[in-house]
From TrEMBL:
Keyword Nucleus recorded: no
rRNA processing as UniProt keyword: yes
Gene3D superfamilies with a match to the protein in the record: 1.10.150.530, Aldolase class I (3.20.20.70)
Protein name: Probable dual-specificity RNA methyltransferase RlmN
Species whose genome carries this gene: Sanguibacter suaedae
Cofactor(s) listed: [4Fe-4S] cluster
UniProt gene name: rlmN
Binding of [4Fe-4S] cluster, residues: C131, C135, C138
Length: 374
């Protein structure tokens, strides 16, 4: 059992810092038309720019040869300010896992992780610099919240990864980005407006967006119930991933402090409502922490709570904890992990151990940023 801990204060809104410069990806299609017109150009230039950005995945003026040079250089200077600069890039798994630490315009740092598999590719993006949820086992949670990212700062993470894959920079030859997961730094639903604006650009057909399938986009949350219910009404078949980590309120309030606002039963009820509205099976994320939350009775309790809400609506992903430097917690023993999975499956809950990549390159989100801060 976990011992008592001092209550942690949650930061639900980002501290005020300077706003990032406005970028093409911050604008809706009609706003792009106006922005181009305001610069003295014909409105059709907006579609040309969108085609280069979302289809050719570039904001390089030299690549926009269908625009007059003076025109393209002026438009790019005004509408495509540099938002992300790679501060550090690390590779693992033979180069098929690429973790990038990005430096933002104000010096804040965020991370994204690109993972290529034999038949698919997945990008994990950050939605905040730091995080205000204060989960003590999470590297990002220990950084605290710096600020929300703008829509364009998130979109740029996606575009950069998609371009890298298209250019064949990741071993395996040129390919497309298939999956997007909001599981990087930050609580996505605490930056709801920018995250949803990003999602709509990602799934919009080219040239107004990247043309990805909404079914291949996953949004994670620690359980912000009002935002979960709002997400269910967006009319998008996204996958919702709930970071639960404990089935009982006593432990979950220690591991996930927001549980003191919305209890285990409340977040599970909201997750069930998400399934009922969207028809999309919910993923339950559960970081297995040795001697903390990996007990067989907790697996049984989780199985009971999930089956009490019906069958076929949920899938559990136990995740071996990726320890952070100086942490008192570590991953569960493999035999304990196997027992936990077997117990859940015994309750009829589909359960799959999450593939963990990049442990040798500080794979847990927030570790590189924390090192840089130090």
């Amino acid at each position: 059992m976990a011992g008592r801990s001092t209550p942690l204060t949650l930061t639900m809104t980002a501290p005020r810092r300077g706003k990032p410069p406005r970028h093409f990806a911050d604008m809706a299609p009609d706003e792009r038309l106006q922005a181009v017109a305001d610069l003295g150009e014909k409105p059709f230039r907006a579609k040309q720019l969108a085609t280069h950005y979302y289809t050719h995945l570039t904001s390089d003026a030299d690549a926009m040869t269908d625009l007059p040079r003076a025109t393209r250089e002026g438009l790019v200077a005004e509408l495509f300010p540099e938002l992300l600069v790679p501060a550090r890039v690390m590779q693992a798994d033979g180069g098929t896992t690429v973790k990038t630490l990005w430096k933002l315009f104000d010096g804040a740092k965020v991370e994204s992780v690109l993972m290529r598999y034999p038949n698919r590719s997945t990008l994990c993006v950050s939605s905040q610099a730091g995080c205000g949820m204060a989960c003590p086992f999470c590297a990002t949670g220990q950084l605290g919240l710096t600020r929300n990212l703008s829509t364009a700062e998130i979109v740029e993470q996606v575009r950069s990864a998609a371009r890298s894959l298209a250019d064949g920079d990741v071993p395996g030859g040129p390919t497309r980005l298939n999956n997007l997961v909001f599981m990087g730094m930050g609580e996505p639903l605490a930056n709801y407006k920018a995250v949803m604006a990003t999602v709509r650009q990602v799934v919009a057909a080219t040239p107004d967006g990247l043309g990805m399938s909404a079914r291949n986009v996953t949004v994670s949350t620690v359980g912000l119930v009002p935002a979960m219910d709002k997400l269910a009404k967006e009319d998008l078949p996204l996958t919702l991933a709930l970071s639960l980590h404990a089935p009982d309120d006593e432990l979950r309030s220690e591991l996930v402090p927001v549980n003191t606002r919305w209890s285990v039963d409340e977040v599970l009820d909201s997750a069930r409502r998400y399934f009922e509205v969207t028809g999309r099976r919910v993923s339950i994320e559960y970081a297995l922490i040795r001697d903390m939350n990996d007990h067989a009775w907790r697996a049984d309790l989780l199985g009971e709570k999930l089956t009490a809400r019906g069958q076929g609506w949920v899938h559990v992903n136990p995740i071996p904890l990726n320890p952070t430097p100086g942490s008192i917690w570590t991953a569960s023993d493999p035999a304990v992990e196997d027992e936990f999975v077997a117990r859940l499956r015994g309750h009829g809950i589909p359960t799959t151990i999450r593939d963990t990549r990049g442990s040798d390159i500080d794979g847990a989100c927030g570790q590189l940023a924390a090192e840089e801060e130090e």
